[in-house]
Amino acid sequence: MTAAALSSDFRLKRSLRARVALAALAAYVVYASMQMEVSAERLLTGLHNAARFFGRMFPPNFERWELLLKGMTESLEIAILASALGIALALPVGLAAARNLMPAWATWPARLIIVACRSFHPVIVAIVFVKAVGFGALAGILALTVASIGFIGKLFTEAVEEISDKQVEAIRATGAPFASVLAFGVLPQVFSRFIGFATYQLDSNLRNSTMVGIVGAGGVGGTLFAAFQRFDYDFVCAILIAIISVIMAGEIVATGVRRVFVDGATLGELFRRGARVPRERKLEQDD
Fold it and tell me: How many CB atoms lie within 10 A of CB 52?
């Protein structure tokens, strides 16, 4: 059999497998939809109810702005404190879990901690801490700290395991202690990625801090839940607009932090639209 015939036979088999896989996926989607009682009638009813709901949300009501401001301030404080504490704890856990730096007796317990922290949604963890320490912001801070350890720890571990071993071995060859190996061989290679992880986690905690309040863990989530219970949908709209505004502001701050720490931008360049770090300065930093 010629090479062309073998190639044609391989493409035919691959195409057949792909069609069988797509048919199986389509059959499962239909089966799952039937089991979940998904129907066009329910979707149409849902669209009608959603139209009425959104009609009652507008215009938004900002008359109780003091209550809204108090909840948003508490959510922001929860997010910042949880991010700072979670990142500080995730650093040693992530380093201990890296197989290219640590022995197996250290990596397995560290990985177990990361998996345990990532296993549950922050709302579930918040319920546990509400039962443990009571209602309030402390439960929210602890819940989001656990989530931060799981997320940052996993990504930081993967980043450390992907570094170049040449730089690490060169520093080890000088007889430098382990702390110097980390400071000069490991952290410079993962610093930019770590800044990205940290800013994303802060953004994630800003969003999650509004969710944990629904179960009594502080923040604007409790205010939002109470507004839903009172059918104050115009106030609900005001809260949602405030949450979106805070998330957008957090994204702007995160972009600025990345430009300062990763690109080496100055404060003046941050406020100049479209400003970039000069190429000469980048080359100097790389040297």
Answer: 9
